[in-house]
Each structure stands twice: as structure tokens, then as C-alpha cells.
Amino acid sequence: MKVLIAGGGTGGHLMPALALADALVEVDPAVEPVLVGAQRGVEASILPSRPYRHYLLPLQPIYRRQWWKNWRWPLLAMEIRGECDRVLEKECPAIAIGTGGYAAGPMLHRCFRRGIPLAIQEQNAYPGLTTRWLARRARQVHLGYPEAQFFIRPGRSTTVFEYGNPITPPSDPPPDREVKRQELGIARDSQVLLVVGGSQGAASINKTISELLDSGAFQDVVLLWSTGHLTWDAYSRFASSPERIVKPFWDPIADAYAVADVVVSRAGAMTTAELCAWGLPSVLVPLPGAAADHQKRNAKALAKAGAAIHMPESELSASRLEEVVSGLFEDRPALEEIGAAARARGCPDAARKIAKEVLGMVS
After folding, report:
1. What are phi and psi of 48, to 5 degrees?
2. pLDDT digits (tens, 9 = 90+) for 15-38
3. Which run of H or E residues covers position 257?
4. How far apart are CA 159 and CA 171, in angstroms?
5. Radius of gyration over every alpha carbon of the chain, rounded to an integer in angstroms
6. Residue 101's closest CA among 287, 269, 303, 234?
7. If one looks up domain 177-345 in CATH, what number appears?
8. Which of 108, 194, 246, 338 has fewest C-beta within 10 Å?
9. Could you report the per-residue pLDDT of 104-113, keeping only the tens digit for each?
10. 187, 181 contact by CB (below 8 A)
11. CATH code for the domain defined by 2-168+348-359
């Protein structure tokens, strides 16, 4: 049975698509995932290395603020419709799943017009345009954040699930913390701070961390820092100290999660899902330019649940970040309380649960 999974443009929409593809095959080895993304999306460089058949279509993002950039959509509409139809005629999927982003909407709409059962997986606390548009037409809507339910209008035959975001879960049993620390050369009783900003890096976070290190802060803290590939050259000089493990990108990130005490990060849906699954206390600095300000909504939702500390980028400074992080290290009960609240929000088995529900639509 073929299951079409449409989504991409950014890693935040592509990675859940890949996690669902893996889970579908795990639940039913007879399932054949077929992924659809955009030619200009991050999936163009990632999907060729994955084991699933895929299609890259000439899709374009919809610009909300710079609306004049949408001039190409009317010209592309017929071409995109034809491309979608050609994929559907060739593959004949039994089910279609959308994980959002501009790579999902047109394909899911064509699936709906052909009577193919739809499921939507929404990652953020505030649903994206595709989810809000198609929720009434979908058989199932799967929410990564329960707060998203207040912003969608499901149809009469739509079932809404709150299983969390599909991620690659921690191993069972999880990695041994002491063993992983020994492998990384970290003392058993060290305080470990992990700083991540995604594969491209987070400019404001990186700048703040570099200022702190130049000022002599965090002398008693082991720093694990993912600078991002694009900014590695600017910060690689900090990798010379034995108290710092600085890399362009942590892969696998599980090694860093296994040894960290506190994490400073952006508030993307998949990152926050991983932090909660691992039960990690975090200081979340949302990306201000994120679509519909969804990272801010993610951070506020977790902060309200006591599962993270929300630090808007407008408040981010070297002194403020040092104050907050040092305060967490000095207050172990508070640190453990935030970690427990994060773990309570964690959904490490979300991908498998969603896969079972989706396959149930045609059983």
C-alpha cells in the first residue's frame, strides 16, 4: 500500500515527514511511503539520500509580509496542478499525509479532490496555513501542541489527535549518562550546557555565547556548542579549550542530549519536541522572523507549562543569559522541576501512534 507524504520547504516540515515514513514501515512493512516536496526546499538535498521514492515539484512559498513576491503563483498554478496530478496518477496512493509548509498544500488539495483520505500533522502551537485551510477536509488532524486545537476548525468527520510531534525517540533504554560523558571526556559531576541553533546556526545566540566566553563567563561549565555550518569559521576559535566541545553541527544530537543539564535553543517545533522527549530543561530564544511567529507561541506554551524558560530575543544579552543559566545550575530543585515538566510534555512514541491511526483510515 502506498502512502503519500507531502511536506517540506524547511527541516521543521521535512523531518516529521521522514519520521512518519519510518514509523509507517515499522508498523506495517507492506507500506510504501512516497514523499513529495519542493525543488527549492531543504528536501532537495536530503531526500536523495533516503530510501524512499520522492518527487520535487516547482512549489513556491507564500509571502505574508512581502506580498508582492507572490506574483509567480498565478503563473505556476496550472503547472503545479498538472505536476500533482501526474504524481497521483503514477502512484495511486491509498492515503495522503501532510506535514505542512508550502510543499504540502497544493498536493493535499489535489488528493482531496480525488477522494484520497487525508491526514494532517501540525507541529506548532499555532497551526500553519495548510493546516488551517485543510483541517475541515481531513479525516485526521494530529497536533504536536494541544494548544493548536483552538485555532483550527475541523470538519464533522475530522478526528483530532494530540499525540505530539513525530521525532526519532530516545533509545530504549536511553543512553547511559555516565558512559556518554566518559566517551566525550566530560567529568561525572560537571555542569553541562548545550547550545544549539539548528544546522544553519542562530546568529543572536552564537553572538551572545561568544561574548560570554570572551568575558570569561562559564568557567565552571562544560559547553557543548553547535554553531551551525554557515557560522563555523567565525566561532571555530573557541574549540581549542578542553572545557568546550564546539562543532558546526551535532550529529547524532542524541549524544549531546544524553549528557546535557541545560539547553539554550531556538523554539522550533521539532527541537522542542526532542527536548521534551529527553526531559531537558531549556532556555528558549524564539526566532523573531518565524512564520506566524510560531516559535514564540511554542516557547510561551512550554513556559506556561513550566517546561522551559522563554527568553525573547529582544531580552537576550550576555548578562541576562548568564544570569538565567547560572541560576538554573545553582538551583537544582528548580532545574529538576523544569525537566520533569518537560518530560511530562514529551511524546517520544508520537510517530508510531500517528502511523497506527493513519493506517486505520483504510483498514
Report:
1. -60, -25
2. 899 999 999 999 999 999 999 998
3. helix 253-259
4. 30
5. 21
6. 269
7. 3.40.50.2000
8. 246
9. 888 999 999 9
10. yes
11. 3.40.50.2000
